Amino acid sequence: MSESLPVGAKPFEFTGNAKEWFGIWIVNLLLSIVTLGIYSAWAKVRHRKYFYGNTYVEGRNFDYHATGKQILIGRLIIIGVYVLLNVLLLAVPPLGWLMLVVLIFAYPWLIVRGMLFNARMSSFSNVRFGFIGTTGRAFLVFLVYPILMTLTLFTTFPIWDRALKRFSVDNHKLGQATFKLDVNLSAFYMAFLWAIGFVVLVNVIGTLLLYFVFHDAVSPTPDGVQNLPVLILIQVLFFAAFLPAAFIYQALTRNAVYNNTTLQGGHRFASNVTAPKLLWIAVSNMVVVICTLFLMLPWAQVRIARYLADHTGLIPGGSLDDFVSQQQEAGGAFGDAYADLEGIDVGLPI
Fold it and tell me: Per the UniProt record, which residue ranges are transmembrane (predicted)?
């Protein structure tokens, strides 16, 4: 895969540095511990503001506008619902199970509200993002598709993954300009097959090597019991193959999504991350972070943010200055006072 973005692409740029982010991160960590987790809501805001604010395209940066209070309220609501559910399950089981069923069906609505909140609290060059997804579509993507995927033994995982990404991209907008993802399902299945093929190949080669190197050890003993350490080694080999496979899939699908996403006005995006580089950064980050008892976590976070920014680009369909001015005039800037009131951060993994 080429290491350079397409001709005409304006690369994203991350200007943060590990030393500066470490100072913010350590304060966030200590205050979160001292306040028994309460300050973590403000820590999340500071985290996003730093990484958003240091990500630029053509000299214009992103920003995050939520407050710690808004994040905390969302978390308190989730905790309150969880506590109430457990109390009802213990005190009035039928009512508790009924509440659980209601919450399962309310999950898509919570997803939509969370995505709405995160979009409206984010901006690019003083133009707010927006989200127009519906609960009905979220119900299909987050409940129906996963059930079907399970029933098909995860062979339809690429179908669900594409639906998930299209739900997110197609329902976001920047000011009044909408995003559109038009990517073939074959790109997701190709990435899926590459990942599965890697797992199979590694395990076939690994098993053969183990067999020839430890032939006596893997041969059954008179009582039919095989060498336990070698069997454990085979199992470790099997699961270890999934880590590189995950990055193969992530790199290929990320490129497919960005390279097929457009923003109204003729603007396009580009991505050229590679699985080997992504894997190297992730594994080396993990080793360094663990060896330093997590003190190098800020360095690892800045490192991956810079790599992803460097390998992501915007291909403008015209003047970016004109585009931003048009969106601000259309009411997409900070003048949306109601944007701070609707939606709520519920801490869901979206």
Answer: 22-42, 72-91, 97-117, 138-160, 188-214, 226-249, 278-297
pLDDT at site 229: 64
Contacts of 203 (CB under 8 A, 6+ apart): 237, 238, 241
Write down the pLDDT at residue 330: 72
Report pLDDT digits (tens) over 229-247.
666 676 677 677 888 899 9
Listed in sequence order, the residues at least 6 apart from 165 whose beta carbon sits closer than 8 Å to its beta carbon are 181, 183, 253, 257
Round to whole Å and give the CA distance between 283 and 278.
Answer: 9
Residue with tokens 């079907």: 148
111 vs 135: CA distance, rounded Å: 8
Please state the domain count of the chain.
1
Helix/strand/coil percent split, the chain, to 5: 65, 10, 25
Burial of 25 (0-12, 13-18, 19+ CB in 10 A): buried
Q: Which helix (H) or strand (E) holds 179?
A: strand 177-181
Task: Report pLDDT for 224.
Answer: 46
CB 93 within 8 A of CB 120: no
| Below-50 pLDDT ranges, the chain | 1-2, 224-225, 332-341, 349-350
Three-state secondary structure call for residue 220? coil
Q: Cα–Cα distance between 317 and 268 in angstroms, integer?
A: 7
Q: Which residues of 286-318 are buried (b: 16+ CB within 10 A; e: fewer)?
A: eeebeeeeeebbbbbbbbebbbbbbbbbbbbee
Q: How far apart are CA 258 and CA 234, in angstroms?
A: 37
- Give pLDDT, residue 7: 86
219 within some domain: yes
Report H helices in 220-349. Answer: 228-240, 242-259, 275-291, 297-310, 320-329
Q: Which residue segment(s) compose the domain that 214 sits in?
A: 183-250
